[in-house]
C-alpha cells in the first residue's frame, strides 16, 4: 500500500505538475523578500536584508511549482524591472499600504513598467502589504492612488494582505497557482 501511494505520488508529480514563472517588483521595503520567505519556508522576520539586484526562488505548492524572481526595489535597481518581467506568467507589484506617502512614487514606477510594450497582456497582481498596521490604505484607496482602474491592457487584481500575520496569503497563493500551465 505504501509502495503504491509512493509510486502514485511520484508519477502524478511527473505528469500532472504545472509551473508558473512570477516576477515580484515594488518599491524598497514594501515586503517582496518577506513574501518570498513566507511562501517559500513559512519564515517571517523583522530583519530582512535589502535585496541587491535579484534572488531566484522555487516555491512548491501542491502540484504547482512557482519560479519566483524577487527583484530589488531601491531606485538604482528599478531600471532592471522590465527585463525580469518579460515573458513571465504574472507580475506581482507589492506596495507598503501603511506608508501612504510612497503611493505616488509606487504609482509612477508601476505605470512606467506597464508602459513597456513587451509586457502587454501579462497579468498583474497588486498586493497592499502590511495591513497588520493601523491606518493602512484600503483596497479602494489603493485602486485610486495607483490608478489601477486605468490599466486596460491586462487582467488586474488587487488584494490587501500582510506577510507578518499572513492575512490573505491563501487567496494570493490560489491566484498565483491559477497562472500555472
Ligand atoms: N508590519 C509589517 N512589516 C512587514 C511586512 N512585510 C514586510 N515587513 C517589514 O518590512 C521591511 C522590509 O521588508 P523586505 O521584505 O526586505 O522588503 P523588500 O520589498 O524586499 O525590499 P528591497 O529588497 O529593498 O526591495 C522588513 O523589516 C520586514 O520585516 C508586513 O506585512 N507587516
Ligand atoms: Mg528584498
TrEMBL record:
Q: Keywords of this protein's UniProt record, alphabetized? A: GTP-binding, Magnesium, Metal-binding, Nucleotide-binding
Matches recorded under Gene3D superfamilies: P-loop containing nucleotide triphosphate hydrolases (3.40.50.300)
CDD domains linked: Arl10_like
Q: Which domain of life is it from?
A: Eukaryota
The family classification in the record reads: Belongs to the small GTPase superfamily. Arf family.
Supply the NCBIfam families for this chain: small_GTP (TIGR00231)
Q: What GO molecular functions are on record for this protein?
A: GTP binding; GTPase activity; metal ion binding
Instruction: State whether keyword Repeat applies.
Output: no
- What name goes with this protein? Uncharacterized protein
Q: Which GO terms describe its biological process?
A: protein transport
Q: Where along the chain is Mg(2+) bound?
A: 33, 51
UniProt cross-references to SMART domains, sorted A to Z: ARF, RAB, SAR
Binding, GTP: 26-33, 73, 129-132
Pfam families under this entry? Answer: Arf
- Entry's Gene Ontology cellular component terms: lytic vacuole membrane
- SUPFAM superfamilies xrefs: P-loop containing nucleoside triphosphate hydrolases
Amino acid at each position: 500500500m505504501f509502495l503504491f501511494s509512493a509510486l502514485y505520488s511520484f508519477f502524478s508529480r511527473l505528469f500532472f505538475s504545472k509551473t508558473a514563472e512570477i516576477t515580484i517588483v515594488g518599491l524598497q521595503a514594501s515586503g517582496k523578500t518577506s513574501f518570498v520567505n513566507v511562501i517559500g519556508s513559512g519564515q517571517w522576520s523583522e530583519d530582512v536584508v535589502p535585496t541587491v539586484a535579484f534572488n531566484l526562488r522555487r516555491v512548491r505548492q501542491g502540484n504547482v511549482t512557482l519560479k519566483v524572481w524577487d527583484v530589488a526595489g531601491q531606485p538604482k535597481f528599478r531600471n532592471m524591472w522590465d527585463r525580469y518581467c518579460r515573458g513571465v506568467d504574472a507580475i506581482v507589484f507589492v506596495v507598503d499600504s501603511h506608508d501612504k506617502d510612497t503611493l505616488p512614487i509606487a504609482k509612477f514606477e508601476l505605470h512606467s513598467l506597464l508602459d513597456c510594450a513587451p509586457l502587454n497582456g501579462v497579468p498583474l497582481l497588486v498586493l497592499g502589504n502590511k495591513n497588520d498596521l493601523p491606518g493602512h490604505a484600503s483596497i479602494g484607496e489603493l485602486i485610486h492612488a495607483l490608478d489601477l482602474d486605468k490599466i486596460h491592457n491586462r487582467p488586474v487584481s488587487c488584494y490587501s494582505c500582510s506577510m507578518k500575520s499572513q492575512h490573505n496569503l491563501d487567496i494570493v497563493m490560489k491566484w498565483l497557482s491559477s497562472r500555472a500551465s
